[in-house]
Design brief:
One of its GO terms (molecular function) is 4-alpha-hydroxytetrahydrobiopterin dehydratase activity. This protein is an alpha+beta fold and about 80 residues long. It has 2 helices and 4 strands. Helices cover about 40% and strands about 25% of the residues. The mean pLDDT is about 95.
């Protein structure tokens, strides 16, 4: 599954084998997001991680920052 544009956001869900793998993924994303100073809206339930990207200080639109973070998140999965 790839990123989906919806209501001026980029959205994607990720499924893992279990909660530990999902949490490990979120930890890696958190480190990347912090370095980029661009933080996702996200949620986690057991083995699922749901991520929404938008740039709040650009009137909640999709910007190059969102696209760059999405690309880096994808690279975590190989």
């Amino acid at each position: 599954m790839s990123w989906k544009e919806e209501n001026n956001t980029l959205k994607r869900s990720f499924k893992f084998k279990n909660f530990v793998e999902a949490w490990a993924f979120m930890t890696k994303v958190a480190m990347i997001a912090e370095k980029m100073d661009h933080h996702p809206d996200w949620s986690n339930v057991y083995n699922m991680v749901h991520i929404t990207l938008t740039t709040h200080d650009k009137e909640n639109t999709i910007t190059e920052k969102d696209k760059a973070l999405a690309k880096k998140i994808d690279e975590l999965l190989g």
